[in-house]
């Protein structure tokens, strides 16, 4: 046995080309499947990643939308239409009043309401006294201001508009220029001129009161009833939920010969008599000192006769 080699291990396999072939094929298959497996894993991860990105994008979009909604709600709370937030209790739907005035219906289900209205302000001479009297009597009014007069009075006039608003009165638009020839050439409405003129005052009010202020109430210089071609304005107001307000009583401080305070008060009472809903026209512009003097008596009349004081907004 000396020449016999001791074989500790397995008998050395004879290399079989057939087997090599199968092994190679198997190995390749394993590698192939392995690669494929890795590929599948890789694409699974990519998918998950993409899904996560999408989810994040969705969450971000939702966050932006919620933020936008919150901001809009915040802006809406700041928005003030005609009166400040604390004075809403005194305000009355101007559209209803407008409708009633148009149809000459001055009833109000047995409840008496009066709207004190002052046109053509603010003035630095008369408006302060009017505001003082309103405050002393704890009643509110509606001021139909003109942009031109606010500008004429400068900062003090601006401060009076703001004061009137802050004290719970309604601020409404009475045009910028008050110029009949520009607003109603040939006594017929020019809507473009009219809207441009009213927008100018709206801009002033936004600057003076608040960028969140707007009013849907206006009074046509000279009165809606005085001009031709007003149907296009009515259509515009209708579309924009706005109200044009004339009047059904007056102290006649801009009519006929100049009256003293007691004559003005008498005229106010006479024209208001028998009406449950009264919209009384007065003026707080320059030269209307007698109106300021007559106001306590006029307020007393409406109080004594059981009227509630409201503002137009
Ligand atoms: Zn006027």
TrEMBL record:
Q: Name one GO biological process term.
A: carbohydrate metabolic process
Q: Name one GO cellular component term.
A: membrane
Annotated InterPro entries: Glyco_hydro/deAcase_b/a-brl, NODB_dom, Polysacc_deacetylase_ArnD
What does the UniProt keyword field contain?
Answer: Coiled coil, Hydrolase, Metal-binding
Task: Provide the NodB homology domain boundaries.
Answer: 112-310
Note the coiled coil stretches, chain numbering.
47-79
Molecular function terms from GO: hydrolase activity, acting on carbon-nitrogen (but not peptide) bonds; metal ion binding
Q: Which domain of life is it from?
A: Bacteria
Q: Which Pfam families match?
A: Polysacc_deac_1
PANTHER family linked to this entry: CHITIN DEACETYLASE 1-RELATED, GLYCOSYL TRANSFERASE-RELATED
The name this protein carries in UniProt is Peptidoglycan/xylan/chitin deacetylase, PgdA/CDA1 family
């Amino acid at each position: 046995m000396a020449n016999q080699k001791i074989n500790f291990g397995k008998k050395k396999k004879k290399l079989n080309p057939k087997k090599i072939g199968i092994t190679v094929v198997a190995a390749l298959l394993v590698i192939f499947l392995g690669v494929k497996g890795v590929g599948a894993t890789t694409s699974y991860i990519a998918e998950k990643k993409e899904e996560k990105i999408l989810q994040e994008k969705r969450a971000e979009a939702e966050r932006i939308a919620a933020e936008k909604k919150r901001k809009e709600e915040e802006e809406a709370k700041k928005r003030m239409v005609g009166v400040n937030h604390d004075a809403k209790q005194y305000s009355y739907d101007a559209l209803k009043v407008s409708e009633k005035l148009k149809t000459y219906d001055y009833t109000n289900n047995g409840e008496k309401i009066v709207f004190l209205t002052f046109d053509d302000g603010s003035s630095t001479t008369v408006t302060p006294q009017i505001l003082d009297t309103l405050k002393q009597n704890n009643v509110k009014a509606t001021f139909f201001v003109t942009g031109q007069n606010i500008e004429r009075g400068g900062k003090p006039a601006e401060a009076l508009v703001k004061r009137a608003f802050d004290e719970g009165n309604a601020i409404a638009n009475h045009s910028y220029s008050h110029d009949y020839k520009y607003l109603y050439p040939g006594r017929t409405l020019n809507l473009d001129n009219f809207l441009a003129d009213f927008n100018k005052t709206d801009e002033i009010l936004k600057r003076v009161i608040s960028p969140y202020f707007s009013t849907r109430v206006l009074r046509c210089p000279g009165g809606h009833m005085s001009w031709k071609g007003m149907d296009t304005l009515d259509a515009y107001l209708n579309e924009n939920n706005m109200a044009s307000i004339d009047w059904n009583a007056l102290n006649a401080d801009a009519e006929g010969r100049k009256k003293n305070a007691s004559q003005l008060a008498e005229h106010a009472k006479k024209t208001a008599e028998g009406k449950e809903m009264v919209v009384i026209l007065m003026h707080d512009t320059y030269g209307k000192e007698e109106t300021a003097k007559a106001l306590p008596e006029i307020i007393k009349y409406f109080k004594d006769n059981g009227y509630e004081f409201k503002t137009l907004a």
